[in-house]
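Weekly structure sync, notes
Attendees: PL (lead), two postdocs, one rotation student
Agenda item 3: pending single-chain targets
PL asked that the sequence for the first pending target be pasted directly into the notes so everyone works from the same version. It is reproduced below exactly as submitted, 476 residues in total.
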Amino acid sequence: MSFIVYDLIFLVLFLIFFSVFLYTRRKNLKKDGLLFLYRSKWGINLINSIGKKNKKTLKFLSYVSIICGYLLMIGALYLVYGVVKIYIFEPAIVRAVKVFPLIPLFPYLPQVFNLKFLPPFYFTYWIIIIAVVAITHEMAHGILMRRYNVKIKSTGFAFFPYFFPVFPAAFVEQDEKSMEKSTKFHQLSILSAGTFANLITTFVFLVILIGFFSLAFAPAGIVYDTYATAAIPISGISMVNGMNVSNLSYNQLLSSTTSSGFTNITLGNMTYLTTKSTLESQANNNGFAIVYYNSPAIKDNLSSIITEINGVNVNSVQKLQTELSKYKPGENITITELIDNGTLNKLVTLEPRPDNQNVSWLGIGFFSNQPSNFGQEVVGWFSSFRAPNVYYQPLLSSDINTFIYNLLLWVIIISISVAFINMLPVGIFDGGRFFYLTVLGITGNENIAKKAFKFTTYLFLFILLVVVIFWFINTY
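Predicted structure, written out during the meeting:
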């Protein structure tokens, strides 16, 4: 049975438990705006214990935390700039992703919207990540509150019942008067403590991820992501699907291609292949078309994962090149490829490489392995310890290994995302008050600080509106 079935069962059981829990303790449940807050005293003893001890260490970490807060704020603004630039100037990426820009990350979102650049996101992941990311974030706030004698009123969790009736966040509620009486340094330390904890969480889980991956997976093949390509002048094409042509334009070439399958193109004494979708992505071509060589990989319809050549394991691109160099053009080799139901052996006849007739090749390429959107970049950053274009085989249970790996990866992605987002200089985030106190400290003028705070908040709302408008234009 698929894991998602177990996950849905867990979701139903959790909702039942959560509903009963809240109903029996409804006196602790209070509405606060759009959120419901469940207040308790959980964690306060631990916060008091840590906050009252190691005062010198916590003071040193306060300086580090504030510095990280400013760096994260700068980084968050740069990320906002990058997102806006994509939505305005990269309509192809927006159309490919399609997801509404303000949609929160909820269970099954990558599966529902077919976001292949992200790993699956289950409800089980969601609950575990809340426990790890949100609780450590809020605990850090609480520890610094206790260190600097800011009164803590309560702890607990909050949820938005109109969207998804489970808790999306934890909180530590400070006494506002006590907070305002603290020095600016103390307040900045407390406000930045949560995101600093997120950075530590990111680093710790990255180390765990690397250790787990090295123990649970082993290189077992290579993964190629495209066939070998060439750039050819469109006007020089002499035949398309066996029909003579001359002085073709891009639009004429596009209209000559079939809607499915490969289209044969002849230029000089060479035959190339292309598809309609490939050409459509090359509208700004400057008179050239990127096409595929008519190579052995295409002719024999090789899968994207190759594990062996004539019984020899190829677990890196270098190993693949070494094995291919042992054979001459025209020789037959047996390629073992990975398919859905296991492995498949194919007899392939090698051909000479176009630029060197004495060297054999398959005609596979690794040119499209660069991230095409920010989501792929984020996943790529935290998976960079993996060798590129290598297929890794789980050493134990494939499902269990993959489940744990993706869980650790999601903890890292969400933890660093929370760190950046929470330091935006916007009213609803810690970064809003952090920015206000910074301006107040620089100018010494509360009126200027308040105006700066309002300006950045409204500016961010305007930017969100612009992003939503361009999302709608580029999607529909």
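Discussion points:
- The first strand starts at residue 29 and ends at 32.
- The chain has a mean pLDDT of 87.
Action: rotation student to compare against the earlier draft before next sync.
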